[in-house]
Amino acid sequence: MPLIDRAQVLHVAKLARLTLADDEVPVITAQLERILEHIAQLSEVDTEGVEPTAHVGVDRLPLREDVVAPSLDRAAVLAAAPDTVGHGFVVPAFVEE
Questions:
Q1: Helix or strand (DSSP H, E) at 75
Q2: Residue boundaries of the structural domains of the chain
């Protein structure tokens, strides 16, 4: 029994806002099937006695001094923008569907 079928792939693609051509669906289905098989294999690993970890990175990110440095000229940058308000750019409030 397959771990994922065409309908599920199309559903996931829709959720991810991806448009798949008909010839891409079998390729993506096979790739996702291999990923899910790998995850299933990992779930069989004995983790008894292994302490859970919240993260595998460093405890703290390195900090640097906040130093003022030369930058672009605000007026020149805003002059090149399609639309501005005050000292900033105008951007859409949301992405269109």
A1: helix 74-79
A2: 6-43
Contact predicate 69/78, CB 8 Å = no
Non-local (6+) Cβ contacts of 73 within 8 A are none
11's tokens: 């559903």
CB-CB contact of 87 with 74 (8 Å): yes
Inter-residue contact 4 to 40 (CB < 8 Å):
no
Nearest Cα neighbor of 23 from 4, 6, 1 is 6
Q: What is the pLDDT along the chain (97 residues), one digit of tens a residue?
A: 788 999 999 999 999 999 999 999 999 999 999 999 999 999 899 999 988 877 777 677 778 899 999 999 999 999 999 999 998 999 888 766 5
